[in-house]
Amino acid sequence: MMHLFHTVSQECSRITTERYSTSFSSAIKLLHRDLRKPIYNIYGFVRFADEIVDTFHEHDKQSLLAEFRSETFIAIGRGISINPILQSFQLTVNQYGIDHNLIHAFFNSMEMDLGKTKYDTAGYEEYIYGSAEVVGLMCLYIFCEGNRQLFEQLKPAAQSLGAAFQKVNFLRDLKADYKELNRTYFPEVDFKNFTADTKAQIEKDIAADFHAAYKGIGQLPIKARFGVYVAYKYYMSLFKKIKRTEPSALLSCRIRIPNYSKAFIVVRAGLRRQFNIL
Is residue 251 over pLDDT 90? Predict the structure, then answer.
């Protein structure tokens, strides 16, 4: 019966991923079967923490996040939780030996979202590390399946990919973050006067992250490479669309990639894999 409880818990993480992010869930399905459940388990955990700070406005978010943090480490220490999201996450953390410092850094960034509305460069870098780069590193633990040498080799690329994804999210979600949540993540940027030059500087930084990340994708184990490459191409496609969008438009709408474009990305990626050029 314990196996059934594990299965039900991990199904909750999978459903959470599929309901909240069609792009990520599609990319996860392209990973080797062995890697899918633990990646779902990480995304479900991250998603729930993010929901606390972004959505639960009518509740005591600070207390809820503090309780979630405490319950997370209790679950990891005990090896059990009646919260299915934490149960599936602790299974993954304990199975793959994920560094607890990454989880602490993640919660630190989530706590920053509760109070900070503007960031200087140091705060911005700290937030990016905890909210995105550490998630890439958690996933890398799974992709490397215990190969510590490979993990250390690919660590910078994994951090760059996480940072690129997060920064693209910031641009995509400008309207919600700035106008609805009163958050300004990019340091020294005045969104009341958001110019093409300022936008270009942000895009230059993101392009550098994508470039650094791509160097590592081809070195990933074969089980992970195709799914990660597709996620990379999804976000590159979104990034290119954002680059073509006027600054003022980013503050009035959320940029999306249509499903037919995503399907085309998968087909092209499949052809690259078939001809051994991935």
Answer: no
Q: Could you tell me which of 96, 99, 227, 109 has the C-alpha nearest to residue 163?
A: 109
Q: What is the enclosing helix (H) or strand (E) of 109?
A: helix 100-115
**Selection from 130, 240, 249, 255 nearest residue 185 by Cα:** 130
Helix axes 84-96, 2-20, angle to 10 degrees: 100
The Cα 51–Cα 21 span in angstroms is: 13
pLDDT of 152-183, one tens digit each? 999 999 999 999 999 999 999 988 888 888 88
CA dist 8 and 149 (Å) reads: 34
Distance CA 253, CA 119 (A): 23
Q: Which of 52, 239, 272, 38 is nearest to 144 (CA)?
A: 38
Cβ-based neighbours of 220, under 8 Å, separated by 6 or more: 143, 154, 228
Could you tell me the sign of the dihedral formed by the alpha carbons of 176, 54, 102, 189, in that order? positive
Distance, in Å, from the CA atom of 218 to the CA atom of 162, rounded to the nearest integer, reads 16
> To which residue do tokens 């998968």 refer?
266
In angstroms, rounded to a whole number, what is the distance separating the alpha carbons of residues 78 and 270? Answer: 42
